[in-house]
Amino acid sequence: MTIDNTEGARAQIGVTGLAVMGSNIARNFARHGHTVALHNRSIAKTHALIEEHGSEGDFVRTETIEEFVGALQKPRRVLIMVKAGDPTDAVIEELAAAMEPGDIIIDGGNALYTDTIRREASLRERGLHFVGAGISGGEEGALNGPSIMPGGPKESYAALGPLLESIAAQVDGTPCCTHIGPDGSGHFVKMVHNGIEYADMQLIGEAYNLLGSALGYDAGKIADVFTDWNGGDLESYLVEITAEVLRQKDAKTGKPLVDVIVDAAEQKGTGRWTVKSALDLGVPVTGIAEAVFARALSGSREQRKAAVGLASGVLADKPTDAAQFTEDIRQALYASKVVAYAQGFDQIAAGSAEYDWDLHPADLATIWRGGCIIRARFLNRIKDAYDENPKLPSLILAPYFRDAIETAIDSWRRVVSTATLLGIPVPAFASSLSYYDALRAERLPAALTQGQRDFFGAHTYERVDAEGKFHTLWSGDRSEVQA
Q: Under a CB-based contact definition with an 8 Å cutoff, are residues 142 and 28 in contact?
């Protein structure tokens, strides 16, 4: 049923910003029995949603912010689905001026978490609750059940949580939604989720390239390989849709669609945010960083065009045992994915400590099992690992994942070395393996780095056999003194 706002405050939730994501999530609320107030700066979009989908549930049509706010039951709950940045600030200010203490504003966009921290503090001073909610799943997830990561005041979740949980994806009867933590924690977690997504997609891309370039498989054959992989430990949304994309034919040429798509990957910024945040926190997210850099390099089309024909050196012969090398790629993909998730959870732990958020990794693995882009079978394993040891130093050290990498390690090395000898770029595979080797090393060359830093900048160093900081008098008699 759809009506104009003539009956006063009757809507349980309001959605402003009715582009595809906003429209779909409004429809999702309505389909689950909630009365939804609708608002959009362009009234035409409100009319279009009601005309096309008004039969799906109970919508309240509004045109002004005052009318929109007046249609909501108290405490008022408004979900903003507009472009991040200044547009979000403008809508927040407009809403805040019309709302009352105790009301809740939810930002469901991909906002930078530091902006969310700022907005939450500002609105708290005005008596309003502000919730930064990461929402993953794309257009389909918004309509049929996303993974939702709401941060903000815990008391606001009592009024908001049941609504969000009702529209979230469900796995084993558990909603893919939980209160993440204070202020910007929800958007922080969503940011890292997207960083892991970047790494996952880059790794899949490298596997695709190896199957084609090293083994000569065409798109259809590679699609069959990914379909087979999706039936095992690699089962995931991204592996599933990879096969679908590879099977798609171009209507114009009859060729596989992937062969006529320009090989320049775009990005909206969350991957870069993840890497910048990791640098600030001092967390090595090498797999995610390489994925971001790979997209940047793919977009440098003029530079790449000019570099075609540069020397490759003497290349090795291609693998002769296609079945074995295909299995090697599968194992390398799985091991590298473990590293990407491990680095992502390390960053989440560092962010939690930095901002005193008290985040729980097992909860995140639980809500990522469905709805979101990185949903995968092995998230159950990640949940189990953190349930068993919430203070796990690294996901790689959990018994299941340690065993999985030990099983894959020889294949992983063969893939990286073969790709290098064939001149095939595998930045994410290689950096993930290098990270693993550095993590397990008893000694790293950082000792030399500290010696150099002390030489030119008197930055001091620690000793393995004594407590405290030390400095060598490099310009003097080169004796050592305690700093």
A: yes
**Nearest Cα to 226, choosing from 234, 215, 216?**
234
The pLDDT profile of the chain, 483 residues, written as one tens digit per residue, is 555 544 567 999 999 999 999 999 999 999 999 999 999 999 999 999 999 999 999 999 999 999 999 999 999 999 999 988 899 999 999 999 999 999 999 999 999 999 999 999 999 999 999 999 999 999 999 999 999 999 999 999 999 999 999 999 999 999 999 999 999 999 999 999 999 999 999 999 999 999 999 999 999 999 999 999 999 999 999 999 999 999 999 999 999 999 999 999 998 889 999 999 999 999 999 999 999 999 999 999 999 999 999 999 999 999 999 999 999 999 999 999 999 999 999 999 999 999 999 999 999 999 999 999 999 999 999 999 999 999 999 999 999 999 999 999 999 999 999 999 999 999 999 999 999 999 999 999 999 999 999 999 999 999 999 999 999 999 999 999 999
Residue span of the structural domain in which 56 resides: 13-179
Instruction: Tell which residue, 121, 109, 138, 326, has the closest CA to residue 214.
Output: 326
Sole residue written with tokens 């209507």 = 251
**Cα–Cα distance measured from residue 246 to residue 231, given in angstroms and rounded to the nearest whole number:** 17
Does residue 303 share a domain with residue 161? no
DSSP 3-state of 79: strand
Type and span of the H or E element at 280: helix 270-281
User: Between the CA of residue 137 and those of 13, 147, 462, what are the distances in Å?
Assistant: 20, 7, 47
CA-based torsion, 82, 85, 87, 92: positive or negative: positive
CATH number, domain with residue 454: 1.20.5.320
Q: Check whether residue 254 and residue 366 sit in a common domain.
A: yes
- The residues annotated with a catalytic role in the active site are 190, 197
Structural domains in the chain (count):
3
The two three-digit tokens of residue 342, written as one number: 């491990």
Q: Is 181 left (phi over 0), alpha (psi -120 to 50) or beta?
A: left
Same domain? For 297 and 150 the reply is no
Same domain as 464, residue 401: no
- Boundary-marking domain end, from 149, 179, 209: 179
Q: Which of 132, 156, 179 is the last residue of a domain?
A: 179
Sequence ranges of the binding site for substrate:
110, 136-138, 193-194, 198, 268, 295, 453, 459
Same domain, 283 and 407: yes
C-alpha 255: how far from chain center: 32
